[in-house]
Amino acid sequence: MCQKISLVILLIILGSSRLILSQEFIAGEMDSDDSYVEYLQGDLPLIISVPHGGYMKPDDIPERVGRFAKNQDIYTIEIAYRMIRKIHELSGKYPYVVINHLHRTRLDANRNIEEAANGNKKAEKVWYEYHNRIKSIREEIINEYGKGLFIDLHGHRHKIERIELGYALSGEELRLDEDLLNSGLAGEFSSIKNLLADNIRALSFTEVIRGDYSLGSLLMEKGQVTVPSKEIPFPRSSEPFFRGGYNISTYGSSGGGTIDGIQIEIDLHTRSDKELQKKVADDIARSLLEFLSIHYFPDIMNISVKEISIPDTSY
């Protein structure tokens, strides 16, 4: 329940203290009914999903039994809240946001329903609410903008303290020869397949995922060590790396459609330190807006990207 209270504070900060209980929303208003799923109506072609940050362990939804990952991605909800504020501050607009408040011991919202809910009907109901909301947002964005970006926000506990970006490609695949990566084979299986086919800057696959204007390089410019990026193009063979899971494979464009997907994994130290937590949230927020401006909609947001020299590749 503490997360619900903090959400009211957030809405006041955002300038909207009214909670909406119906299905009619305007940008910046949050659906905060008795469900374990919360939803922020957006007016940007950007979805932020937070599947593993929940704190709630209700008695009527038992712990999942079996060899399932159950670690909470602690502070990812708090980081998402700050990202909302920063995106609004920079652009005057809101991302769409879907948050699962059930603890991962009760529900894993980044898995198929069988593994996610472990057969519990109440957990299954929450799973459907979460994923049906994402599906309806995707349809809304496609109808309004034609294309967009889905972000699945996570936290990792790897020893290397850095952000990992998942494009549905393994570390081994990211280490392939650059010519092979740019041949089109890797892009066919990537969660940003549509962006590679419909890139307003006509950039190659490797330029999009680790070039000067990649999300990783935009974050590196702000001091956030990130892989893949221009400075760290791929994880070494001995280094753990999250390629992305069920959500970006389902809601990204690897299987078709015009919504691309990227999984963002933030290390535990950054998430746990209050000042680092604020900085990473602000840096991701700005970088996502820059990424949308560079690769999707250059005129859609009132933000400054003057520090980025965007090449004219329209010839």
Identify the notable features of this structure and list them briefly.
single chain, 315 residues, alpha/beta, Aminopeptidase, eight-stranded mixed beta sheet, 13 helices, 8 strands, 39% helix, 13% strand, disordered N terminus, disordered C terminus
Would you kindly provide a written description of the structure presented here, covering whatever features stand out?
- With 315 residues, this protein is of the alpha/beta class.
- The chain has one domain (2-295): Aminopeptidase (3-Layer(aba) Sandwich), CATH 3.40.630.40.
- The chain is built from 13 helices and eight strands.
- The chain has helices at 2-14, 76-91, 113-117, 121-145, 171-174, 178-181, 185-189, 193-197, 205-210, 215-221, 246-251, 268-272, 274-295, and strands at residues 30-31, 37-40, 46-50, 96-100, 148-156, 163-166, 226-227, 259-267.
- An eight-stranded mixed β-sheet has the order 1-2-4-3-5-8-6-7, with helices on both faces.
- β1 and β2 form a beta hairpin.
- α2 packs across α13 (274-295).
- The N and C termini lie far apart (55 Å).
How are the SSEs ordered, and which strands pair?
Layout: H1 2-14, E1 30-31, E2 37-40, E3 46-50, H2 76-91, E4 96-100, H3 113-117, H4 121-145, E5 148-156, E6 163-166, H5 171-174, H6 178-181, H7 185-189, H8 193-197, H9 205-210, H10 215-221, E7 226-227, H11 246-251, E8 259-267, H12 268-272, H13 274-295
Parallel strand pairs: 3-4, 3-5, 5-8, 6-7
Antiparallel strand pairs: 1-2, 2-4, 6-8
Helix pairs in contact: 1-2, 2-13
